[in-house]
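Posting for a labmate who doesn't have an account.
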Amino acid sequence: MYNESFRFFSVSRRTNSVSFFRIINPVTQHVKLARDRRRRKSRIKALIFFCAIVCIVAGGILSLKDTVEHKPEQAPEETVYQTLQNEPESNKEGEAAAGKENIDATSYDDELSDKDDEVDEIKINPNDFDLSEPLPAEAQSAIDGLLDAVDQAKRITDQFNHSVVRGDTLKDVLELSGLEDDTSKKLIASYPELKNLKPGQQLYWILDNENDLEYMNWLVSEKEERVYERKEDGKFVRQIIEKKSIWKKEVLRGSVSTSFRASLRSQGLDGRQINQLITALQWQFSMNKLKKGDDFAILISREYLENKLTGQGNVEAIHIKSQGKSYYAIQAENGRYYNRQGETLGKGFARYPIQRQARVSSPFNLKRRHPVTKRVRPHMGVDFALPTGTPVIAPADAVVEKVAYQAGGAGRYIILRHGREYQTVYMHLSRPLVRAGQSVKRGERIALSGNTGISTGAHLHYEFHINGRPVNPLTVKLPGGNSGMQDSERRVFLARAKSVERQLKF
């Protein structure tokens, strides 16, 4: 009995155990499969994350490699300055190597036509230096009858005049309007007398809509005038005018009314004579500081024909009294203007905007062609191959007109205004050291060179503008150069200055 009972219990327990495991086993398998799926997902996520990290690192390495290959590492400012001042031989070798790497450093997007991404600017109107005003109604009406509105505006902009000073050549004069030397060579080839410009002579010329010389008037003397006019075939014809007029020296006195220019016009001076005065005085003091009631006296030689002014004349001296101070500009025999002590009024310009000469990687060329598109892309400045971080200096006293950045073109750039006629431009800088509106002196550091914007290598793009037109910085006759007088000239001038002072005394 006992044995039967035990056997039944044993069989029952085995049966129940089998049934229990049959129930539990599917659940266990389900949990295991879920865990396996989670593990596989985790492995896949980890693999994806690892691949992403590898791609990021690889991209960073490639970018760094590209930067190293194309842009020299910028040296600390203090180190660069010390290098330029002391220039040890080891650094010279390093810079020579850098120059070889960037032998063709340049760019083809230097026209500042792209939109500025960053800008710090003050508005400087060149006319603020001469207090310009619109033409009188009668003159404006006469011009309107000859030219249409668009052509008229351009022609007014493209009229130029210059009083010859010692050392001037025809090339120097015409370059004031942006004309290259092929124009002067063409004129001189036909008319060799143009090689003999003399101090005190005056030239007046006009450019056409294609920025070519259309007309030039040369006042040779009080009795002779020569006119050169370009014909449709591109050749110039000359007309010699023998004058039967009378020249008189006069002293004109007045005071500033609505503007200095208007006051000069009321004395019978024309635009060319007024510009002659403004150019002579612009370096002495700011013309826009003149106030109503300030006095002026002018010594001028003017041409009369049948007792009527012809418009020809030469301003020999001016005395302005403003806020209790006297300012003089007196013309010497060499054609330049000086103060009473014989000191030049023009500010001298340095030829280079850097502390030492550097290799030119791309010259000034208004007919340069893009190497890819083959289209003419004028290069309106000079490119100097320089290591990034080289100091850039102001070539003359100036006011900072603009500090800006163009990612798609000139990079970081600066524009300086030097008086009424001159501007200089500096592009692809790594760092500006000045701000808009700041006054800088000749030789003062204004920036560090670089490789910003669209550029093929570290360099400085430098432009020199006269009357808003780019000229070759390496060949243009610089303002204030060779403006001193010899001892014999100075003695003559000082005696003349005393006489002028007596004539222009208030």
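Reply:
Got it, the structure tokens are right above this. Confidence is low (pLDDT under 50) at residues 17-24, 63-101, 129-137, 143-156.
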